[in-house]
Amino acid sequence: MVFLDFEKPLEKLYEQLEKLKQVGEEGIVDVSETVKELENKIKNTRKEIYSNLTGWQKVQLSRHPERPYTLYYIREMSRKFVELHGDRCFKDDKAIVGGLANLDGQTVMIIGHQKGVNTKMRQYRNFGMANPEGYRKALRLMKMAERFDIPVACLIDTPGAYPGIEAEERGQAEAIARNLLEMAQLKVPIVCVVIGEGASGGAIGIGLGDRVYMMENTWYSVISPESCSSILWHSWDYKEQAAEALKLTPDHMLEFGLIDDIIKEPLGGAHTAPEEMAKLLKRQIKKAISELQEMSVEDRIEARINKYAVMGVYGTAEEDSLMTEKENQ
């Protein structure tokens, strides 16, 4: 098991439990009661730790090396999955995967970021940072789904769109902007779920939907805490303060009206019970699709556009004048 910094009390308890079990296996002493007590203590300690996580701790959990990624969820949720490749323009971006999946009889076009489960695969997947061809592939699959009246599900988990010069040369900003324009008008239901990191335009490039959900231990923000810290304090040492200031947790996103609901995770995070998490995710996606399919195409698109039109806070001219006056003083 991999333990994060704030999970150190659990790590010590697990070490004690392992030693006790070894003693019990040797048959020298009956330690069954002590094992039960220690297991209860682990359970209570876990509840205590996870009852009040900070923003930075949720960021850490969203990046946990054992956390399930898009392809795991697809395999667990679907009876059959046919992956589709390429943007029919440049190449196949491995950071974004997508294809047709059968969710208990419901055909869904699932698209999502894929980070990779080990060092070699992370390099192969470019750490989940998509190039323009990744977003163009996603759009191609969405338009295909629209043609055949198939709902779309997007699983978001990226530290951001790839910032390399070659991505800019091929139109990174245009590709993301095009996706937003097309997704706003797509005729089929779109369900988006942040399953890990939801950073900047890399996330929103496949994140505009009729229903947007976040798993409990994820984050969604225009910038990562580390990058925010480096800009404001010229150091990464203030990433925890930055995480709190950014208000990037699911609770904050729900409060601001930027998402529709939070999907609860098993105690300790999705990586502690990935099969259970996959069931919870599938249930939420199927429920949302079922509700959205009851609406007409016109009503669904109008509701989607209105959903995003009301986001944000607008100040009056008088408030702007007062703010300018204060800044000049």
TrEMBL record:
Pfam families: ACCA (PF03255)
This protein's GO CC annotations: acetyl-CoA carboxylase complex
Domain CoA carboxyltransferase C-terminal per the UniProt entry, residue ranges: 37-291
One GO MF term attached to the UniProt entry: acetyl-CoA carboxylase activity
Reaction equation(s) it catalyzes: N(6)-carboxybiotinyl-L-lysyl-[protein] + acetyl-CoA = N(6)-biotinyl-L-lysyl-[protein] + malonyl-CoA
Keywords linked to the UniProt accession: ATP-binding, Cytoplasm, Fatty acid biosynthesis, Fatty acid metabolism, Lipid biosynthesis, Lipid metabolism, Nucleotide-binding, Transferase
Protein name, as recorded: Acetyl-coenzyme A carboxylase carboxyl transferase subunit alpha
